[in-house]
Design a protein that fits this description.
64% of the residues lie in helices and 0% in strands. With 338 residues, it is mainly α. Helix 1 packs antiparallel against helix 9. The radius of gyration is 18 Å and the shape is globular. It starts with 44 loop residues before the first helix and ends in a 13-residue tail after the last helix. The relative contact order is 0.25.
């Protein structure tokens, strides 16, 4: 759900945090590709790709469990707090510093709101009334929103027939998931709208980052650590205004929040850095298409959520449309090393 990527020349679409998000797409999208891995990782990239898909896919289940014991803002604050702690530890280990300059921090504050604080909170509120499976599928619409927005906001993005067709196909998939032909019966309109707004927030933030922070010269880790820190501070200010002290500390929801922050936000971002550096952004962002599948399987098997035929069918159509929106002119792309 909080999903860092290296920007592609022809699209303003991040791959999805979660939720989480995504995915979560921190400001590391603007960092230069010069931050390469200095040695071959111990684990093959395919294994790390699978682990990342599982972590982000389960994020929606963890949000649902967290909201069973804590208010949505509390879930988001805990998620950001534990995610920031992981990145802070990584900064110390790697002896990197946070970025400097008031202007950079100002842009990072906006990015933190659009890419972390806002979408994380919206997904948490959405899952009060909609299944985690539907939240995961809504998250997969981020590439569709990004494609539509990039045609307006980024002059270098030129529409092609394939990408426009993908946009139309994707939104047909959304209508299928929601059961438009039967009047959206059985769905909570508010919760669904919040999840879709969360997925829309990611590409808006990505476009802002691309315009304001591209070429800043800071490392992925430095920018993302600062961004998560600012998002945590934002939630620290907002949470007490809208929530009270919980009556108790339920263990299950608390552990879900810890896992959501430490694994789904902090550790997952570190995994993504390595994948982007080793395989290139094109391959790394393919994780997007596995997230709703895993989220659906997790929600059905572990939470007992029910599915109608239109949900998986519509999800496949959404993912197919999203894949087409990423198609562009043929160019050399970074390929994974065996």
């Amino acid at each position: 759900m909080s999903r860092p990527t290296t920007p592609k020349p022809t699209t303003a679409t991040p791959p999805p945090t979660a939720t989480s998000t995504p995915a979560s797409t921190p400001a590391s999208a603007s960092a230069s590709a010069s931050a390469q891995v200095s040695r071959r990782p111990a684990l093959d990239w395919r294994i790390r790709f699978g682990v990342l898909s599982l972590i982000w896919g389960f994020s929606f289940l963890l949000i649902k469990v967290g909201t069973q014991g804590f208010a949505p803002f509390q879930v988001t604050f805990g998620r950001l707090l534990f995610g920031t702690a992981v990145l802070a530890a990584a900064l110390v280990v790697r002896r990197e510093r946070l970025p400097r300059g008031a202007r950079t921090w100002g842009h990072l504050a906006v990015a933190a709101f659009l890419l972390n604080a806002l979408p994380f909170s919206l997904f948490a509120y959405a899952e009060l009334t909609i299944p985690s499976t539907l939240a995961g599928i809504c998250n997969a619409t981020s590439p569709l929103w990004g494609m539509a927005l990039s045609l307006v906001a980024l002059s270098e993005d030129r529409p092609t027939r394939v990408r426009v067709a993908g946009l139309g196909l994707g939104f047909i998939g959304v209508l299928t998931v929601l059961g438009a032909w039967q009047g959206f019966r059985g769905l909570d309109p508010t919760g669904t709208a919040l999840a879709l707004l969360a997925s829309l927030s990611y590409p808006i933030g990505w476009i802002y980052v691309r315009r304001k922070l591209a070429g800043s010269g800071h490392s992925h880790l430095s920018l993302s650590g600062a961004q998560l820190l600012l998002a945590t501070l934002q939630l620290a200010l907002v949470t007490p205004l809208f929530t009270g002290i919980p009556d108790g500390i339920p263990v299950g929801p608390l552990l879900a929040i810890v896992a959501l922050g430490a694994l789904g936000t902090g550790f997952a971002m570190l995994l993504q850095y390595g994948l982007v550096a080793e395989t290139g952004p094109t391959t790394a962002q393919m994780v997007t298409y596995f997230i709703p599948v895993i989220a659906t399987v997790a929600g059905v098997t572990l939470l007992g959520e029910t599915l109608t035929w239109s949900t998986p069918v519509g999800a496949v159509v959404v993912l197919a449309g999203a894949a087409l929106t990423q198609a562009g002119p043929r160019r050399r792309r970074a390929e994974p090393r065996a």
